[in-house]
Design goal:
100 residues, 81% helix, 0% strand
Amino acid sequence: MKHGFRRAGDQRSVRTHLILLVLAAVLPLLIFGALMIWQHGQLRYAAVEQGMRDTARALSLAVDREIGASKAVLETLAQSSHLDASDFAGFYRLCQGILE
């Protein structure tokens, strides 16, 4: 008995056709979803990397500022008249005042 769904040499059943139809509909969606997840991961990685770079740059600037301030204080202390007069007690008091 011949049905309208089958040809003479075609042995595929309706079930096989339905499975192929579902795969044809779902497979592109799965691929698209996987690509979106991968792209989201790449974007998050890039954002984290940029944030770490910015943090390192800001930390570097802060350390440079601290070193510059310490260098300026030390250069000023090196030119103290207390050192020229060998007044180490006065120089010590001056250093204690700066530390406070």
